[in-house]
Amino acid sequence: MTKPMRLQKFLSKAGVCSRRKGEQAMRDGRVRVNGEVCRTLGTKVDPACDRVEFDGQPVTLPDAFVYVLLNKPTRYITTLDDPRGRRTVVDLLPDNLPRIWPVGRLDWDSEGLLLMTNDGKLTNLITHPSHDMPKTYAVKVRGLVREDSPELERLRQGVELDDGYVTRPAQLHVTRDNGRNTWLEIVIHEGKNRQIRRMFDTIDYPVMTLRRIAIGPVRIDGLSSGDSRHLTPEEVAALYDQADASMPDRANTSPA
């Protein structure tokens, strides 16, 4: 049984937009409740009996949540659509999926694990730093750096980025080198714009390759670049356990 909720929260749970964008859409007169334009931000709706429209189209909550793991290649935009006509991660998904959105982002020149879902609760648990969800990356940097170098110790303590933001301590270790460049594995709990590249810029080791290999307990192992699959029930449950939160009843984790 659904309960009344704020209209902007309803729009977010329905996968239309974020709560903040929902508030702006309400101010702009793009949202109707039971046929009437609604601009009052405190308005609550009951999904079981109220009729909500966004830009004239009916909006309903999904019958079930869907969770997809995508191995994003480089040169794809992490968005649902791009006004400039560039390829987006949606172009890589099967046609039979409901509307789902990326959880966080990977830059145009970054690759690896990208979760996509219509579960707003899990999206917040993964992306908001207060929930402390670890994200693990394989990074190739230009130059040779030692495990015990003072440069890496700076990253382990936290560094100030070019905009004044001080990163939280990172976990990292060297995995290999080829005599010219170094591969490392790094774990962070944030998601600032191009954060890892900017972190390594502060210690003068530019990133050449950046690949996300895990979010919490979910790993990219065995999935080819450009391919996707549904998360297993165990993986969805593990993500919620990692965030110390309960999994919703509408989770749909059937295999792809």
Number of helical runs?
6
Alpha-carbon distance between the termini? Answer: 28 Å
Question: Judging by the overall fold, what is the CATH architecture of the largest domain?
Answer: 2-Layer Sandwich
| Domain unit count | 3
Look at the structure and give the CATH class of the largest domain.
Alpha Beta
What is the CATH topology descriptor of the largest domain?
A: Alpha-Beta Plaits
Strand percentage lies at 25-35%
Order of helices and strands: EHHEEEEEEEEHEHEEHEEEHE
Please identify the oligomeric state.
single chain
Number of strands: 16
Estimated helix fraction: 10-25%
- Name the CATH homologous superfamily of the largest domain: Pseudouridine synthase I, catalytic domain, N-terminal subdomain
The stretches of 5 or more residues where confidence is low (pLDDT under 50) are: none
Report mean pLDDT, rounded to a whole number.
92
State the secondary-structure class: alpha+beta
Question: Which features would summarize this protein structure in a list?
Answer:
Alpha-Beta Plaits; 3 domains; Structural Genomics Hypothetical 15.5 Kd Protein In mrcA-pckA Intergenic Region, Chain A; alpha+beta; 6 helices; 4-stranded antiparallel sheet; 10-stranded mixed sheet; 256 residues
